[in-house]
Design a protein that fits this description.
The chain is mainly α. Among the domains are: about 210 residues, Serine Threonine Protein Phosphatase 5, Tetratricopeptide repeat (Alpha Horseshoe); about 80 residues, no CATH class. The chain contains 20 helices and eight strands. It has a two-stranded antiparallel ribbon with strand order 1-5. Strands 2-3 form a two-stranded antiparallel sheet. A two-stranded antiparallel sheet has the order 4-8. α6 runs antiparallel to α8. The radius of gyration is 22 Å and the shape is globular. About 50% of the residues are buried.
């Protein structure tokens, strides 16, 4: 059962850009002078920030940039449907691409709401601990949004104030170092004030562990291995997280906000305004009323290990639908449901939970950070700091859980522990494990980019040039409207 409802607050909607002739201060539907008056309104405001990062509609298209742009998936769907995704997949998108424009707007709307909370909640008369926590939650979400933006676009405007003045709106581009500095500042400040855990009524809110894990991830992406490792060890020291015994449980409604989950975006069906997950429909087959996007590739399927006698890594059929294997409703999957012959299963629910008539309003949360991911990032950081034994230990914990998820007795040669002492071989093993453990969770493209030119160009093929195609173009609407970018 969901315990947080993220309501869209019209009073918090802010403009992300304005025309150059508009120099008077901007106001939303309700003035901030009359809204931020008590603790109830402060909680409504932070709930509105959470609501802004849900997958309630197609504009939150991080899956396009994380999966489709990578070697793990193609657009899928009807060939003529959402054709602009194909340009991103083929690295030919331009500044007028609708997917790019909509995602930019979506992220900056969330940032604008977070900025409002950070600016106005300090003046609300309320209990100081709750006030600090709410501000910490907003800082985490702002950091999360900027982390996504800097990895999708590279240089972006670093907007940190309510979007009510000309100066706050017209902000030039900051380089990635400056953006990461702000990300780390927000997360560090959040980690101090956020609780380690919540009571059931607040389950799903951002915790200290989430802030520390994101600090580790931000440092990992900057190749600051020792700092990343320190933050991941602080996550471990909290004693709050562990792998679920069975891999499949991470993607089931009954196990939401589990011991493996560090930060997940909450969804709740049947609400007004909409708070359910549209991914349940975007990735489903047409036979269930779905659009069958984000179709996995044969390359991803081939990355899963097989035994000498043909048994496969159990994560393959937990993650993907493939010919003849049980689908979500226990019927056999048909390769005809997808242009590649495969569909993702991780973000969908069986019809017994969400019928076809309500397909676009799913209950299932999206797990952005889970402990399995942290273990693999720890393995990577250990390896790059010369601690191969610790790297192998963390890597093998993931493989052992996968092996334990096998139905029956697994063959001895399936998912055996990695024993190599060669640094390059161990690095390759960690990277391959990330691909299969986190497959279709929207991380693959960003992993390839942070691993560098050779890895990225090898995986993505001759149509990809790391120097010129790594980042998506800035939206033309922002270039035209933001006088800080185009004075």
């Amino acid at each position: 059962m969901k315990t947080i409802k993220y309501w869209l607050l019209l009073s918090l909607i802010s403009f992300s850009s304005c025309n150059d002739f508009l120099t008077e201060e901007l106001k939303g539907t309700f003035s901030t002078d009359t809204f931020y008056q008590n603790d109830k309104q402060a909680i409504q405001a932070i709930n509105g920030v959470y609501h802004a990062i849900t997958f309630r509609n197609f504009n939150n298209a991080i899956w396009v940039f994380g999966d489709v742009a990578s070697d793990d998936a193609v657009k899928g769907g009807n060939p003529g449907d959402q054709a602009e995704i194909s340009y991103i997949d083929e690295f030919t998108a331009d500044a007028n691409n609708g997917i790019i424009n909509n995602y930019w707007t979506y992220m900056y709307e969330a940032i604008a709401r977070a900025n409002n909370v950070i600016a106005y909640v300090p003046g609300v008369p309320m209990e100081e601990g709750l006030k600090s926590r709410i501000i910490g939650e907003a800082k985490f979400i702002r950091a999360y949004c900027y982390f996504n933006l800097v990895n999708v676009f590279g240089k972006v405007p670093l907007k940190l104030q309510p979007q009510v003045t000309y100066e706050a709106v017209h902000i030039g581009l900051s380089d990635d170092f400056e953006i990461y500095q702000q990300i780390e500042k927000d997360l560090s400040e959040a980690a101090v004030v956020l609780p380690v855990s919540y009571t059931a009524s607040d389950a799903g809110r951002v915790t200290r562990g989430a802030a520390l894990a994101m600090l580790g991830k931000a440092n990992l992406y900057q190749h600051r291995w020792a700092a990343a490792l320190s933050y991941f060890q602080q996550v471990d020291a909290l004693g709050m997280y562990k792998l679920l015994p069975h891999y499949a449980d991470n993607f089931k409604l009954a196990f939401e906000n589990s011991e493996e989950s560090i930060f997940e975006i909450q969804h709740l069906a049947g609400q007004n305004p909409l708070t359910g997950s549209a991914l349940n429909q975007w990735f489903a087959p047409a036979i269930e009323g779905g659009y069958y996007f984000n179709a996995p590739t044969q390359s991803l399927v081939d990355a899963f290990e097989k035994s000498a006698t043909g048994e496969v890594d159990p994560r393959l059929d937990i993650s993907l639908g493939r010919q003849g294997q049980p689908w979500l409703n226990d019927e056999p999957f048909s390769a005809s449901w997808s242009p590649t012959g495969f569909l993702t299963k991780k973000h969908q629910q069986p019809l017994s939970e969400i019928p076809s008539s309500l397909k676009g309003d799913g209950d299932l949360n999206y797990i952005y950070l889970r402990y399995g991911d942290v273990l693999l990032m720890k393995a990577e950081a250990f390896l790059e700091t010369g601690q191969a034994d610790s790297a192998r230990a963390n890597l093998n914990r993931i493989r052992q859980r996968a092996r334990a998820s096998f139905s029956g007795t697994p063959p001895a040669d399936l998912l055996a522990d990695i024993t190599t002492t060669d640094q390059n071989q161990l690095r390759d093993a960690i990277r391959k494990e990330r691909r299969v453990e986190l497959g279709q969770e929207f991380h693959r493209y960003f992993d390839l980019m942070r691993w560098g030119k050779t890895t990225a160009e090898t995986a993505l093929g001759p149509g990809f040039n790391y120097e010129t195609k790594r980042y998506q173009p800035l939206p033309q609407m922002e270039i035209d409207a933001n006088q800080g970018i185009n004075p």
